[in-house]
Amino acid sequence: MLAGVKVNAAEQAGPKVIRVNIPGPHLLPFIPIELIPKLGIDQALGVQLAIRYLPSGILALEDALAGNAQFAGVAFTTLPTFIAKGKPVSAIAVLSSGVPPYSILIRPDLAGSLRSLKDLKGRSIGIPMGSVTSKTYLQVMLELWLANHGVRSNEVRWVQTNQNLAGMQGSLVSGMVDAVFCEEPLAGTLVRKKIGLRLASLSDQDAPGRAGWTNHIRAVLACPRDIVERQPQQVERMTSMLKRSLRWMQLKKPDEIVAKLGVEDAELSQDLANPIKRIPNLFSPDGRFKAAEVEASTQFLAETGTSLPAGMNIRGLIADKWVDR
After folding, report:
1. Which domains does the chain have, with CATH numbers?
2. Do residues 130 and 160 lie in contact, with contact meaning Cβ atoms separated by under 8 Å?
3. Degrees (nearest 5) of the Cα angle 22, 254, 221?
4. How far apart are CA 46 and CA 43, in angstroms?
5. What burial class does residue 325 get, using C-beta atoms within 10 Å of its C-beta: 0-12 exposed, 13-18 middle, 19+ buried?
């Protein structure tokens, strides 16, 4: 069955429904997508954007490949593994680039014994684990970070933890894990609630290996290649909506961006706004694939030991015909 077949019936009545899967809710890289219906951009273009939240970007794209959505938010550097497994996918727009705002948080009761990343050897770490097709971006990133501190991936115990507040909080509070690896605003919220203590942050300027990650493409909007080839009008609509959302974000202050999301909890809203204030150029201004970022992503793949399929250039992962218009 071709990707997208299952959702076509829903598009027969009323506005055309475009379905997109993303991790979340309210994870930083995917905010531009969440803002599309909040801003009424989809209605202005005569469509309805239906957003579904999944535990990780890997599962979001797997679900799109199964025909349950046309698009997914996912880490760019996970795409080669999909293709190597015979699952053709394409990145159609950039959401976020650069060093991700990730932190390792530990249980407060372990503060005396866990003082550095080296101390994580033999410990359990909660992280989204992806699927049989591919490791999640978070796991690849953490393995690389730990390796820079002399800890091999087989020297820690990986525990599946959903990429949302409930998953991370539950894993720490229950004692199921010694630490979690998560991004803002999850990290800030867990620290504020005294559920986790920050052991280390990739935002630290002296984080080992950080220089090689600075400019790589982090999160993208992707889709099964069938969608690009057989439903180009859907790709055009989706990229048009995303570009409008990104342009709006460029004109607004962080507090205004978060307010538009409609987060009711004032403290959670601040947890979300703080990293946007702190990290310049967190979001792509226009969704385009910049040459320097593509090159940095090639280097990132090499550092993480991720190989492109034989005969494929990294540009083969990208279908930017529509976002460049």
Report:
1. 5-98+215-317 (3.40.190.10), 102-213 (3.40.190.10)
2. no
3. 25
4. 5
5. exposed
**DSSP string of 224-266?**
EHHHHHH-HHHHHHHHHHHHHHHHHHHTS-HHHHHHHHT---H
What burial letters (b/e) apply to 153-162, b meaning 16+ CB within 10 Å? eeebebbebb
Structure-derived torsion over alpha carbons of residues 221, 225, 231, 234, reported in degrees to the nearest 10: 0
For residues 39 and 93, give the distance between their C-alpha atoms in angstroms, rounded to a whole number: 19
Q: Which residue has the tokens 């991790």?
A: 23
Three-state SS for 91? strand
Residue 160 forms beta bridges with which residues?
127
Structure tokens at 24: 């979340």
Q: What is the pTM of this model?
A: 0.83
Sequential pLDDT tens for the chain (325 residues): 444 445 554 445 567 999 999 998 999 999 999 999 999 999 999 999 999 999 889 999 999 999 999 999 999 989 998 998 999 999 999 999 877 788 999 999 999 999 999 999 999 999 987 665 567 788 888 998 899 889 999 999 999 998 788 999 999 999 999 999 998 888 999 999 999 999 998 877 666 555 556 688 999 999 999 999 999 999 999 999 999 999 999 999 999 999 999 998 999 899 999 989 988 788 999 999 999 999 989 988 888 888 888 888 999 999 999 999 8
Query: Coil, strand or helix: which one is 90?
Result: strand
Token pair in block for residue 83: 């293709």
Lookup: tokens for 273: 């706004």
The Cα–Cα gap between 22 and 221 comes to: 9
CA distance 143 to 141: 6
Q: Cα(308)–Cα(33) distance, rounded to whole angstroms?
A: 28
Cα–Cα dist 132/102, whole Å? 24
